[in-house]
Amino acid sequence: MTDRNDKQSDSEFQADDGRHWYVIHTYSGYENKVRQNLMHRIETMEMQDQIFRVIVPTEEEIEIKNGQRRTVHKKVFPGYVLVQMRMNDNSWYVVRNTPGVTSFVGHGNRPTPLDDTEVKAILKQMEEEAPKVRVSYQVGQAVKITDGPFTDFEGVVDAIDHERGRVRVLVSFFGREAPVELDFLQVTRLVD
User: Fold this and answer.
1) What local confidence, expressed as pLDDT, does residue 150 receive?
2) How many other CB atoms sit within 10 Å of the CB of residue 113?
3) Is residue 164 domain-resident?
4) Domain assignment of residue 31, given as a range
5) Residue 44 DSSP symbol
6) What is the mean pLDDT of residues 101-114?
7) Which of 77, 33, 83 is nearest to 53 (CA)?
8) What is the per-residue pLDDT across 50-106, written as a single tens digit (0 to 9) for each?
9) Mind listing the pLDDT tens digit for each residue in 24-39?
10) Residue 183 sits in a domain of what CATH number?
11) Contact, 61 vs 74, CB < 8 A?
């Protein structure tokens, strides 16, 4: 059984064959391990005709740390895994007794399937092209410029443009404040 992250046709969302998406709760930080364990159990217990897909919803995020830009996969719903399956006693047993699974999300002991529009929105969010940029400074925070013509100048963050990866810093020189637009990598936060 393979987990495909390609675009889904609308027929995969129709519940005419009994397939629905369910959410399982896991120990925090164990989402990928639960996914791996469940995929293994599906194969060894021959449940491919009952349990179809197992997804840990993630999105790409660009993290800037120590002047370095790196792409990380951030979990959209920490502690939760999505499972596409036909709900019956056997499939419930296989999923529920997978190591790391604490419960199904639902009312009481009864798992509640996700609405198709919710699933489509989650899968679309995972497919977004441009990763989000996560920065460690905020508007009003003191920063030091580390690159470019204003290297070693200190200023205050005036605006952050996440889409363009730019920050506007108010720098004081010649007794006046002037805005300078810089790349996220050209500034570092000053420790308070």
Assistant:
1) 86
2) 19
3) yes
4) 19-127
5) H
6) 87
7) 83
8) 999 999 988 877 776 666 677 778 888 899 999 999 999 999 999 999 999 999 998
9) 999 888 999 999 999 9
10) 2.30.30.30
11) yes
Q: Is the pLDDT assigned to residue 14 strictly greater than 50? A: no
Task: Let me know whether 162 and 83 are in one domain.
Answer: no
Could you tell me the pTM of the whole model? 0.64
Output the CA–CA distances (angstroms, integers) from residue 145 to 55, 130, 153, 159, 187, in the order listed.
41, 26, 6, 15, 4
Q: Which two tokens stand for residue 33?
A: 């391990």
Domain membership of residue 168 (yes or no) is yes
Q: 31 vs 148, which has greater pLDDT?
A: 31
Please check whether residue 119 lies inside any domain of the structure: yes
User: Rounded to an integer, what distance in angstroms lies between the CA atom of residue 80 and that of residue 98?
Assistant: 14
pLDDT at 72: 79
H or E stretch covering 89: helix 89-96
- Number of separate domains in the chain: 2
- Which residues make Cβ contacts (< 8 Å) with residue 90, sequence separation at least 6? 47, 50
Q: CATH no. for residue 45?
A: 3.30.70.940
User: Residue 8: inside a domain, yes or no?
Assistant: no
Any long-range contacts for 148-157 (C-beta under 8 Å, 24+ apart)? 148/182, 148/186, 150/180, 150/182, 153/180, 154/190, 155/180, 157/187
CB atoms < 10 A from the CB of 178, how many?
Answer: 12
